[in-house]
Amino acid sequence: MKLKAPNLLNVFERWSYSVPILTYFVLFCTIWILPVPLKSNKTKSPNQLLDVYSRSKLFQNDFVIKMKNSNFDSDKVEAENQLLNVKGDYLVNLNDGINKKVHVDPTAVLQDVFRKADENRDKKLDSKELSRWIRLKIIEHITVAVGNNHALFSQIDANPKNGVISWKEYHSYFLKKRGFSSKYVHNHDEKRHKGLHRSIKEQIMRDRASWMEAAKSDPDTLTLDEFLAFTHPESSSANHLTLVDELYDKFDRDGDELLTEDEFAVLQTQGEEDEMVIIRQDENERRAEFRKSVDLNGDGKADRRELLHYVAPQSPRHSEHEAEALLALADGDHDNMLSLEEILAHPDLFLKSKMVDTAQSFHDEF
Asked: Where are the transmembrane segments (predicted)?
């Protein structure tokens, strides 16, 4: 009996099915048995990781703007760790971009300020030196606030970029600067604020109240000028005009939009049965202030232009009043001057004053 030679076609078909199955089986066994590393076993040191993260943040927010309403960058930073010399403000709520705490000695800050304010190097600060230094810091603060306003406005006005900032745009920026992810910001429930710390929720409520005060044309959006009133009310021309109107309402008894010395110095209030009561307390001081700080051209009357100069934070009267208040509170030996020792004996007073933290001092007033 003759054996039939195998059909080559049948052999090829059998191997065409077997080879792939065998290949997958071998590959599976190899992966199962051999510990093949999926990534390098070398671990980066904390410093290396920090360096990588720092480089990733290099082009984000290359300028720092101190906001009046929202301290974006420092939820967890202790108050004593917020001392930095940035753009003329020694005390700012600032994060250096990588969540590191910055430690600056408050005593060193006060020593530095004292040295710079002591013009005649007699190791004493009189009222004039104090006043000049405070006014310098006020002017620096106002200049930076106004100069940065447009840049920050353009940064927040992004979705859509239409020349106004909506509350949603501002709130998104607020959360991102607090370190929340874009996904969280996108899905954030503004009514419940789920996942936010109580202090952040309270800040949002304060921001919302300040927003409603600044939004004159539309309660849901802010224009460029309104945004300045929102972030830096002391720098806003609109707020200055409002203050002037309040002065007219309070003092301009004949309604001619001109304040006389008598109207400014002699106060009147309504008594019983609609009777007007004249108050002459501090009349001499108010007459002196009118002549020195209000009536600039000396004609005995103050118009709107003069009153705008009077209420503006750059007016010398603000720095003079601040200097007088600091002297009254810290001048222990009553020589009408402040020594470094007297300043260091009242650190909280000076660290929160316009002498050091000009921005926060102004914003506390507003």
From this structure: 15-34
